[in-house]
Design goal:
Length: 70
Amino acid sequence: MYKRLIPAAAALMLAGCGLADVGAAGASAGTSAVEQAKQAKEIEARAQQRVDAAVKQAEEQRKAAEDTAQ
Protein backbone atom coordinates (compact mmCIF):
# COMPACT_ATOMS: atom_id res chain seq x y z
CA MET A 1 0.00 0.00 0.00
CA TYR A 2 2.70 2.49 0.99
CA LYS A 3 4.69 1.46 -2.03
CA ARG A 4 2.05 3.07 -4.26
CA LEU A 5 1.33 6.17 -2.18
CA ILE A 6 4.85 7.52 -1.75
CA PRO A 7 5.73 7.82 -5.46
CA ALA A 8 2.32 9.38 -6.11
CA ALA A 9 2.87 11.94 -3.35
CA ALA A 10 6.36 12.70 -4.65
CA ALA A 11 5.04 13.16 -8.18
CA LEU A 12 2.37 15.56 -6.94
CA MET A 13 4.92 17.61 -5.02
CA LEU A 14 7.23 17.84 -8.04
CA ALA A 15 4.48 18.52 -10.57
CA GLY A 16 3.35 21.75 -8.94
CA CYS A 17 6.68 23.60 -8.80
CA GLY A 18 6.02 25.68 -11.94
CA LEU A 19 9.63 26.90 -12.31
CA ALA A 20 10.83 24.57 -15.04
CA ASP A 21 10.64 27.23 -17.78
CA VAL A 22 12.26 30.20 -15.99
CA GLY A 23 15.87 30.19 -17.27
CA ALA A 24 18.52 29.89 -14.54
CA ALA A 25 15.83 29.49 -11.92
CA GLY A 26 14.54 26.59 -14.00
CA ALA A 27 17.95 24.93 -13.88
CA SER A 28 18.09 25.33 -10.11
CA ALA A 29 14.56 24.01 -9.80
CA GLY A 30 15.51 21.05 -12.00
CA THR A 31 18.43 20.19 -9.75
CA SER A 32 16.20 20.57 -6.75
CA ALA A 33 13.59 18.32 -8.36
CA VAL A 34 16.21 15.64 -8.97
CA GLU A 35 17.34 15.87 -5.35
CA GLN A 36 13.74 15.70 -4.16
CA ALA A 37 13.15 12.63 -6.31
CA LYS A 38 16.21 10.94 -4.78
CA GLN A 39 15.01 11.78 -1.29
CA ALA A 40 11.55 10.47 -2.12
CA LYS A 41 13.08 7.16 -3.26
CA GLU A 42 15.05 6.92 -0.01
CA ILE A 43 11.94 7.68 2.04
CA GLU A 44 10.02 5.08 0.06
CA ALA A 45 12.71 2.46 0.69
CA ARG A 46 12.76 3.18 4.44
CA ALA A 47 8.97 3.07 4.61
CA GLN A 48 8.93 -0.25 2.75
CA GLN A 49 11.51 -1.67 5.16
CA ARG A 50 9.32 -0.63 8.10
CA VAL A 51 6.25 -2.19 6.51
CA ASP A 52 8.15 -5.41 5.80
CA ALA A 53 9.43 -5.52 9.38
CA ALA A 54 5.92 -4.95 10.74
CA VAL A 55 4.51 -7.71 8.52
CA LYS A 56 7.26 -10.09 9.62
CA GLN A 57 6.66 -9.28 13.28
CA ALA A 58 2.90 -9.80 12.86
CA GLU A 59 3.52 -13.16 11.19
CA GLU A 60 5.83 -14.22 14.03
CA GLN A 61 3.26 -13.17 16.63
CA ARG A 62 0.50 -15.02 14.78
CA LYS A 63 2.63 -18.15 14.55
CA ALA A 64 3.50 -17.94 18.26
CA ALA A 65 -0.18 -17.55 19.11
CA GLU A 66 -1.09 -20.55 16.94
CA ASP A 67 1.67 -22.63 18.55
CA THR A 68 0.45 -21.67 22.01
CA ALA A 69 -3.15 -22.52 21.11
CA GLN A 70 -2.21 -26.04 20.01
